[in-house]
Structure formats: structure tokens, C-alpha cells
């Protein structure tokens, strides 16, 4: 869920930043180079969104609490993840505040552009509307570029923290698998992965199945019959009747029904095999590598904007 929220916030920020770069620099009060650097940031932010929405689904992890002891090898990674989540939520709030500031700045810039020349409202905001280049215009330029810089920094820190969270999660999944193996638990992951691949192949198909009093048991019957199209249709019809903890996947894409089916399937497998564990394989390494690939050039673009912002007060005096 937190990944989805970060992606949604990043998309909102990209819309605002795109609005900024499409404006004439004379309207935004920023130099053309700032618009170029902002376009570079947008490119890498959009690429990061693709990485997160395509590959960042967390693995399904299921095991019986009585079968797996929470020793130090598991507690510490869990504490790390909790700390990363708390920090990520703070980063998300900071990004939202910066985004609000940039939106307000853009609104003021557009209003200033439409103000009649010499009007009392625009005269106090700087000499741009009247053609002057005095200290008011310089101060406006500094303020506008600084708000863009603050938003860029907030987005960079948000995705860096998300990267740290995903790295910690990957270590946690490895620790869980090792601990489960050491405790001689039965690995049921391959069975779940097989069902998942079959559902993915059938997700474009349609089918119907009569409703039954117990949605979970009926779903398992359909899956045991390998009736994948009907399983997907049945999931759509019964999802609202399943327990929240069984289908709380945090995803909002076309594969959500598949993940919901697998969540119910895992729940029933662990009920049947109390000595079993499930950790489905997800390529989190490609996600973290993809994020790192986008973060480095994003930081370079931010450094260029920051260098100009530091020079602006000197040139405006």
C-alpha cells in the first residue's frame, strides 16, 4: 500500500512539474536552464514509476506463527523495515508539502502573467510585468526556483528511502526463508507460483461459476479443477466477502484479482499444512537496481538547479 501511495504522489508531482516546464520561463520567473533540468528530473521520475508499478509487488509471505519462532535473526530485519516505513511516511508528508508550495507558486505566476501592465496587484510582485529587472524580479526568480528545488529534493529523498525499504524487505524475505528451512518447514512456494503463472496466462479469459456459501472453499475447488478463467471471474464476484487481511495486497492494477486469489489460496494452504511456509519469488533486485539507475541522474539535475539558486541572491543584489 505504501508503494502505491508513493507512486500516486510521484505521478501528481510529475503532472505539476510538467506544467512548470511547459510554461514560458518568463512566466515562471525561472531561467531556461532550470526548465531543462526539470525535464531531466521528469524523465527519471517517470522511469521510476514504471519500475515500481511493473516490478515492485512484494512477495507473498505466509507461515504459521506457531511453527516459526521470531528469533533475533528475524526481529532485527523487521525493526529495520518498521523504521524505514516510518521515515518513508515522513518523506511522503514533506513531498506533499513541497508539491502544494509549487502548485501555489505556479498559480501566482499565471495570475501575474494575466495582470494588466501597471496594475497595483502586480506592481509589488516585481518588475517582470512592466519589463523591469529590479530586485523584485530577482527575488521572485530565487523564490520560484527554490520551490522547484525543494520539491525535487523531496522526491529524490522519497525514492531513496523507498529504495532502502525495498532493500531491507529483500533481506527480510531471505531471512524468513533461511529460518523456515532451518526449522524444517515444508516449502509450499512452488505450488503457489505454479498457480500464479496459470492465472496470469488466463487473466484475459472470462468465465462464470455459481456462488457458494463459503467463497474461500469454493475458490479452492475451482483452483483444484485448474479452471483459471472461472477462478478470476469468481474472485471479482466475491472479493468483498473475503476477510480484509486475506486480500490486502496494496496493489491497484490489473493483477490485483490474481494476488487476492493467491492470498486466499495461501491462507488455506497454511491452514492445511501447519508446518508449511510460503515466500513467493519476486525480483526485488531488479527494482532496487532500476531505482538506483534513475536516482543518480536525478541528483545531478538537482545539483545543477541548486548551484544556480545559490548564485541568484548575489546576482539580484
TrEMBL record:
Pfam families: Fry_C. Residues 123-137 have a biased composition (Gly residues). Residues 40-267 form the Protein furry C-terminal domain. It comes from the Eukaryota. Residues 115-137 are annotated as: Disordered. InterPro entries: Fry_C. Transmembrane segments: none annotated. This is Protein furry.
